[in-house]
Amino acid sequence: MGKHHLGFGLVAVAALVSALAASAPAQAATSAQPAVASHTVAATETPDGYWTSERMRSAVPGDVLADRAVWRASSTAVGHVARGLEQRVAGIEAKASAQTKAAKPKPNALSTAESVVPHIGKVFFTLGGQNYVCSGNSVAAANKNTVSTAGHCLNEGPGAFATNFTFVPAYDNGAAPYGQWNARSLHAPTQWSNAGDMTYDTGFAVVSPRNGQNLADVVGASGLSFNAARGQTYKAFGYPAASPFTGQKLISCTGPASNDPYNPQFAAQGIPCDMTGGSSGGPWFLGTSSSGYQNTVNSYGYGSRSTVMYGPYWGSVVQSTYQTAASS
Fold it and tell me: What is the CATH number of the domain that holds 253?
């Protein structure tokens, strides 16, 4: 999410794209092939000590990258995303978890201040010479070292993969109680890496073990759900940085999902939420807690004071991307 908010001031453009889509000839829906782009991270791409406290605080919220993809919105494929049978992956409990406290509602009730959740954190990365920040989550995988985030938080879409990618679980006002976990590989759907298709704005990073321990064993890992029914209630988390937020605390939003009325071709769903830039890539859980199955990520919104956050539908393409990362 960007200078002000995911999607930043795109309502007029989105409405125009929606109108064009409505007036275009009907096309037969075609299933996207679940191809995956993967990048092995060289040791020199994330040098130890790169992410100092100063660099973390000055990193630009990554929604400016999502903004570019939304501007390139296409009306050639309306509201279709590859979908198979619903499947779930069970979560992994941490050996030791931090204590969490009751959430603190804000007056507008669109978002809530949260205490840290061990498996949710910030991701920091470099693209095009610029340092960025997004949000991410440790997810269950055979390698026990997989992190989910938005596609635009690890690949230019279209373009190069990020360098200096690191995950900081349970980040809290500059504190990193579980340290920095550097990526050893990055994975995104080719629909994102080749074309920046917002329908598939999801990516997975595989991090290296730290001090001989796997990420999931230290902070736990969320279960995942793919090809789920639409319109469910979600709880989303992230680290929004643009005003009125600071990026230093974990924030959540909870509510029922509905379809994006401006760009239906993205097949995304939105929930009531006013999180701003920096929350991109944060996890959405089915239900009303961080212990549910993760089913998408924060992707984009419209305008600097957006009251809806959108996330891509996790169908067969995203599932294939996850499976590639989880087995690497």
Answer: 2.40.10.10
